[in-house]
Amino acid sequence: xxxxxxSSLWEQNxxxxxxxxxxxxxxxxxxENARILIxxxxxxxxxxxxxxxxxxxxxxxxxxxxxxxxxxxxxTLQCPHCRYNGKKETENGKGFRYLSNQTTxxxxxxxxxGILLIEGRFEIYDEDTETDERLECRSxxxxxxxxxxxxxxxx
Length: 155
What we know:
Elements: H1 6-10, H2 13-26, H3 32-42, H4 46-67, E1 96-101, E2 104-105, E3 108-112, E4 115-118, E5 123-124, E6 131-137, E7 143-145
Antiparallel strand pairs: 1-6, 2-5, 3-4, 6-7
């Protein structure tokens, strides 16, 4: 598959917005004062802003890896955020976790005085495919895409 030409990449907001945010972070342009002003402007808590910035960085990493993937998958895993290799025990455990999204459902019982009453126990749509497969680092607890070319197998 041929990579899109430069001008078509420039037009893709879903590519350029995470890139812009990731580059702003990399340049160190978000000092404490800027973060405070952004939180006030967007009516966010500091943790919510950090989450948005992390999501943008993760998206940009995923985009770069899919566009410029190496021909061979890596021989070892390493968190792109903190460089943890999964070998030593951390306060959050050891290694990495495989994460994915799958649809769950619960029965809705009723609506009473503006409160939706929902069954606590959930079921999974078994026929639903898992999406957004990714890894979680057990050191920094951040998520990152499965490296390009790396295959998965369930045992």
